[in-house]
Amino acid sequence: MSAPSAPSTRRILTASLVGTAVEFYDFYIYATAASLVLGGLFFPKASPSAQLMSSYATFAVAFFARPVGAAFFGHFGDRIGRKSTLVASLMTMGGSTVLIGLLPTYELAGWLAPFLLCVLRFGQGFGLGGEWGGAALLAIENAPPKWRARFGMFPQLGAPVGFIAANGLFLILGLLLSPDQFKAWGWRIPFLLSAILVGLGLWVRLKITETPVFKEAMEAAEPSAVPMAEVVKRHPLRLLGGTFAVVACFAIFYLATAFALGYGVATLHYSRTTFLGVELGAIVFLAAGILIAGWWSDRTTPRHVLLAGCLGTIAVGLVMGPVMGAGSLVAIWAWLSAALFMMGFVYGPLGAFLPALFPPRVRYSGTSIAFNVGGILGGGLAPMVAQALADRGGLTPVGWYLAAAAAVSFVAIAPLKREA
């Protein structure tokens, strides 16, 4: 069977990819800035480690906002449709990002600076809470038979695309600007440029139509009055299993990006541009892993591929200390590449796996809540916990932490064998 190639199909897949790429660009520029400059600009003077920990704490704020956004946007996504909800989530995320680029620093505004930073960080997470689930449904609810996983991987490909755009821009700024210029105003540029990318994402999404699965569900019965309540009441075990299924992908990503960047610059004393270059060289393995996992999932099942990915992630975690701890750029790149490649197998199939756990009438809510609550457990505190572990015992306990997260996901995925 050849790949679907109708203009409407290309438009749908582009909308699911571009929108999440924009959203993840917004999210990643914050993660990068948090690792590099925000601690010293928005918090009182303290030790560099304390300021970095404070910066990571604001990073975590968005993860706690994401389930709130998931419940809000999921409610309307299941009642009025996927398209309009996706447009609203994109505008919420993009507006918050642009405003972060305009904030005064602690030196100018005192306590108001970190307060506003946390508020806008909450706005970023709130918008992203409704983004991924809707993008995944847009793709898989338009997929032909035997193509669900490959369609569902397109929102996942937004992750490496957004990461490359975000960190690539930071790398260019690092090469063009002096450290003082970057700290004074250069870090704001990626946040302000988000306005252009959001406009692009809106233009693409406003051209798509509602998914046929949602239309059929609305014709068959009245929409759920409170979709989230229905998910909790009728599908509690699937919601719980889906939530823990995503822990591994969040843990591995934020340990291999945000934490690794902060550790490489602050502890290993590599320059910011050097380490960003290493991470950009490794992120292509995430894209490769997603593509392979999507193809393999359609040949077998998404569950089968996710279980294999969890086992591979455990192995990657156990070798983190001796490999990355060696300190050489080649060893660091090798570990980051292996970690992100394995992330492709615990992340790529989620676009097909999580929606299949819930019926269409409450699918937006169930998928979004599981993904974003899992994000808190797997990624929200990961950089901060990893930094604390590294300060006390080096990278080996950080690797154990990653292996434990993957084991949790393996145990959660194993019983989830049937679609709703």
UniProtKB/TrEMBL annotation:
<feature type="transmembrane region" description="Helical">
    <location>
        <begin position="369"/>
        <end position="386"/>
    </location>
</feature>
<feature type="transmembrane region" description="Helical">
    <location>
        <begin position="398"/>
        <end position="416"/>
    </location>
</feature>
<feature type="transmembrane region" description="Helical">
    <location>
        <begin position="305"/>
        <end position="326"/>
    </location>
</feature>
<dbReference type="GO" id="GO:0022857">
    <property type="term" value="F:transmembrane transporter activity"/>
</dbReference>
<keyword id="KW-0813">Transport</keyword>
<protein>
    <submittedName>
        <fullName>MFS transporter</fullName>
    </submittedName>
</protein>
<feature type="transmembrane region" description="Helical">
    <location>
        <begin position="161"/>
        <end position="179"/>
    </location>
</feature>
<feature type="domain" description="Major facilitator superfamily (MFS) profile">
    <location>
        <begin position="12"/>
        <end position="420"/>
    </location>
</feature>
<keyword id="KW-1133">Transmembrane helix</keyword>
<feature type="transmembrane region" description="Helical">
    <location>
        <begin position="185"/>
        <end position="206"/>
    </location>
</feature>
<feature type="transmembrane region" description="Helical">
    <location>
        <begin position="55"/>
        <end position="74"/>
    </location>
</feature>
<feature type="transmembrane region" description="Helical">
    <location>
        <begin position="332"/>
        <end position="357"/>
    </location>
</feature>
<keyword id="KW-0472">Membrane</keyword>
<dbReference type="InterPro" id="IPR020846">
    <property type="entry name" value="MFS_dom"/>
</dbReference>
<feature type="transmembrane region" description="Helical">
    <location>
        <begin position="12"/>
        <end position="43"/>
    </location>
</feature>
<keyword id="KW-0812">Transmembrane</keyword>
<feature type="transmembrane region" description="Helical">
    <location>
        <begin position="112"/>
        <end position="140"/>
    </location>
</feature>
<dbReference type="InterPro" id="IPR036259">
    <property type="entry name" value="MFS_trans_sf"/>
</dbReference>
<feature type="transmembrane region" description="Helical">
    <location>
        <begin position="239"/>
        <end position="263"/>
    </location>
</feature>
<keyword id="KW-1003">Cell membrane</keyword>
<feature type="transmembrane region" description="Helical">
    <location>
        <begin position="86"/>
        <end position="106"/>
    </location>
</feature>
<dbReference type="Pfam" id="PF00083">
    <property type="entry name" value="Sugar_tr"/>
</dbReference>
<dbReference type="InterPro" id="IPR005828">
    <property type="entry name" value="MFS_sugar_transport-like"/>
</dbReference>
<feature type="transmembrane region" description="Helical">
    <location>
        <begin position="275"/>
        <end position="296"/>
    </location>
</feature>
<dbReference type="GO" id="GO:0005886">
    <property type="term" value="C:plasma membrane"/>
</dbReference>
